[in-house]
Write a structure and sequence with these properties.
Elements lengths: L1 E5 L4 H11 L4 E8 L6 H10 L3 E5 L1 H9 L12 H15 L7 E3 L13 H8 L7 E2 L11 H4 L17 H10 L16 H13 L4 H7 L3 E4 L5 E4 L3 H10 L5 E5 L7 E4 L6 H13 L8 E8 L4 E7 L10
Parallel strand pairs: 1-2, 1-4, 2-3, 4-5
Antiparallel strand pairs: 6-7, 7-9, 8-9, 8-10, 10-11
Length: 322
């Protein structure tokens, strides 16, 4: 017998997996990636539990949900119920491919006020169809599923946890010796106010395309008066990521002598001299020089030869930040 466990990297999903493993069932961890979250947390959890891991990109499906979530948004732009149902439905589509019989999640009845109510859990379960979704942490409070009814799992060894307290989960984590699990609810950018502000602004200008959404995850974002967008890397890792995300025609700016922030300038139409001046000013603002007044900036179009320009003065760029 084999099950697919949706592993987010949080404690609940890890405990749900352990409860199934304890019944001698083989488990494959499944994670999902999009511009809004990564499957890496789940991959680490799978490694800690000693189970194989399978990841699937669901960007296209998530964009459709984000545009019109059937069950609405949470506090920000997080369509949690629709997202969870998508994940369950995607896992259901993998059952045959991965030779598994049912799906496991770490959802807990009543733990989250909107996305883990009884109605919300019922809506999510419909993604699996035919009663193939097992929630080991709250199973005793929920209708019997196919894995329980068919004897694939012993219901008496499942739990009846509900509510927002995590006391029982923390006690179980200590018993199992689980460490390194992620904080609950973390990891999704759609729950972050600052990111959602940028996401709304992006929809107005470029729309929600995968390429633009991936860029939105990185750096400080500025909207220039011409409609161009400039993105400033906050550290070396973000500079490297901007270099990877730059497409042909994007212009990259960085201090020539003492490199600091890499600034990516992107525009659908022709780039104006003023666009370049403002991008260079952003580069000046986040340079490594102390109180710089003038700075020589290396400027290059992605895929073409570079040049050098000078950023000078004290441009006020604060009003341009998204």
């Amino acid at each position: 017998m084999k099950a697919l466990s949706l592993l987010s990297g949080g404690l609940d999903s890890m405990l749900a997996t352990r409860l199934v493993l304890d019944q001698g069932i083989e488990v494959i961890g499944v994670g999902f990636s999009s511009p809004f979250y990564s499957s890496q947390r789940g991959r680490r959890a799978a490694g800690s539990l000693g189970v194989p891991f399978f990841s699937r990109d669901i960007t296209g499906e998530m964009i459709k949900i984000l545009l019109a979530p059937v069950h609405g948004y949470g506090k920000h732009l997080n369509p949690c119920t629709d997202c969870h149902r998508l994940m369950v439905a995607t896992a259901a589509g993998l059952l045959k491919e991965l030779e598994a019989s049912f799906i496991v999640t770490g959802e807990v009845l009543g733990q989250r006020p909107k996305s883990q109510t009884r109605d919300a859990l019922n809506a999510v379960a419909k993604g699996a169809g035919r009663g193939l979704l097992l929630r080991p942490l709250s199973a005793l409070l929920l209708p019997e599923t196919v894995p329980e009814r068919e004897g694939w799992v012993d219901r008496s060894y499942l739990l009846g946890i509900s509510g927002r307290s995590r006391k029982v989960q923390l006690e179980l984590a200590e018993q199992y010796g689980l460490t390194g699990y992620e904080s609950p609810g973390g990891g999704c950018l759609l729950t972050e106010e600052g990111y959602c502000r940028k996401l709304k602004e992006l929809k107005e200008h470029e729309g929600w395309e995968a390429e633009e959404l991936n860029l939105l995850r990185v750096g400080r974002h500025f909207r220039l008066p011409s409609g161009a967008r400039a993105v400033s890397g906050r550290n070396r890792e973000e500079n490297e990521e901007l270099e990877k995300l730059a497409r042909r025609g994007d212009i990259l700016f960085q201090a020539a002598e003492r490199p600091g922030s890499l600034v990516l300038l992107r525009k659908r139409g022709p780039v104006t001299p003023r666009d370049r001046e403002l991008a260079a000013a952003i580069c000046l603002r986040y340079s490594k020089e102390k109180d710089p007044v003038r700075l020589e900036i290396a400027c290059r179009v992605k895929g073409e030869a570079g040049e050098k320009i000078v950023a000078a003065g004290a441009e006020d760029i604060s009003a341009l930040m998204i």
